[in-house]
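Quick one: co-fold with zinc ion.
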Amino acid sequence: MAAAGLGVAPAHASNSGGLEAEEGVEAKPAPKGRDGAKLSPPREKASRPKRTRQRRPPRSRDAGRPTLSAFSARPSRFFLYGKPATVAFRISDASRAVKVRLDVLGTGGRVLRRIDLGSRRTGSVQTYRLTGREGGHLPQGAIELRIEARDPGGRRLKRTTKASGVDRIGFYWHHFPVAGNFGFGGDGSRFGSARPGRLHQGQDIPTPEGTPLLAPRGGRVRIVANQPGGAGQYIILSGAGERREYAFFHLQAGSIRVRPGQTVRTGQRMASTGNTGSSGGPHLHFEVWEGGPWQGGGRPVDPLPYLRNWDGWS
Ligand SMILES: [Zn+2]
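Sure, here it is.
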């Protein structure tokens, strides 16, 4: 897992939200189920006799608290170096602005990040673009987002049944490279299988010609070229924030929509798969090189374990 301080966090983000100092107030935890559901059947009965007492100071604790009326995170999955997720919220309060913080929690409820969203206007929808790079790369998998806010008087955010202020979202580091029907072929398609005078340095992915080819990782397109007797139309991509390069061979003629030097996002369409060069049928030949550049210091590794992983969520 990435530690803080990779220097990629946007100016907004910080692990020490302005609300941090008051964290102790939170210490008395409301009884809560695994998913935040109310565990409070006794409350109904218990509150009934108290009602007369509460009449004197009429609900002073809730009065004037900032209230959450909308909260969502979209889409349901987002990718490192891909399109950020949009977190949207609306808070009503007597004051014009409240201090807002977004907490990112892991599956076990552990707080992974506290992102200071600064002072935000009340009464209108506010947004934040979550990149997953706030304070370093977030771990991949399911994460939970929880919004917190305080008004200038220090009153804490009141959640409603309509807007609990909690949402779940998936975050992943890589995307499967084709969007459409595909297979992994037989033994001859595998990394390390025999080819005339050499070994196969990638994994073949049979897929119909014209299937969208997506960047498995955002980064920089290093090479776009044609090798009629071999790779055919091909692209070499350098992954951002990792020492990896990716090769995509036999692409459909005329389908390439990226240029050398261009930055792409994870999941962005770069071309269509095809059957150009030395190819016995429509497929993507896919290589992963680690530790250095493709054909220039790196070494090819078996892409299949990665592909199976990425297929699990892409
Ligand atoms: Zn191949």
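If it helps, The chain has two domains: 20-172, 187-311.
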